[in-house]
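Quick start: what a row looks like.
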Amino acid sequence: PNVLKMIARTNLITPWISFQIVSSKSVKVRAEILTRCIVTMTYLEELHNYNALMEYPAALQSAGVFRLKDT
């Protein structure tokens, strides 16, 4: 049951992170969001929260974010 909840949370958070990056209009704001994602990932690694940690690379490798060329 806990694994299913973790999967459901990942399926909610990953598109949300992608949306936050893609929906920002300026490159500067996108860069700030990416910087915050990297900082969050380091905190998650220190906490050994690997499930939440892997949500960020999954979001950054999504098609919408991957197609961004300026950031």
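That is the whole record. DSSP finds four helices and no strands in the chain. The mean pLDDT is 92.
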